[in-house]
Amino acid sequence: MADTPRLSIIIPTLDEEATIEDLLSRLRELRVGGAETVVVDGGSLDDTVALASPLASRVIVSEPGRSRQMNAGAREARGRQLLFLHADTRLPRGTERLIASALSAEHCWGRFDVRLEGRHPLLPVIAGAMNLRSRLTGIATGDQGLFMTREAFDAAGGFPDQPLMEDIEMSRRLKRQSPPACLRARVTTSGRRWERDGAWRTLLLMWRLRWRYWRGASADDLARAYRHVR
Q: DSSP alpha helices (H): ranges in 53-110?
């Protein structure tokens, strides 16, 4: 169809009234250029849906859970390319051009480098380590703005229905199709989790959870451990 957007930006939300207006306002330029923004709410108890509705191409409500929400958004999206974006993450200038250039015969998916916004002196070090690890392993995190072709998403079967490490598992599935395009352009995401819970404590927790996942622990068990520690 002539009006099919090239890029659909899918944003899972849950009680994001503090961030959603700013995010969607920043995405307005992309919408004017033809991209669509699909907000998928998982049952917010605040004003997220009301604030997002006039600013997004579409707002839908799904079962809670980031994987389920992102899959529901992908089903509703019309774009040939899909970008999954956290509500507290801001995109670099020229995002649509960067993604279009990255998705080629060699790469059917990719991610951006990330910058963590905040005052803690460790945040730049943590972001640098995340970017380097991702480049070496070909595994991306949701904070890095995962993007892919519609065909790659469908071939991967969508995001796995699991409560944690869904981005890790999706990366593994996508790697079977092609290596990721690791863009050096940076998305900026909030460092609030690291500052709130303690940078070293959060870093050690995530390393431990990833190690256990790599060793075969179930995502359900890891999610319970993550909630208990937090």
A: 66-76, 95-102
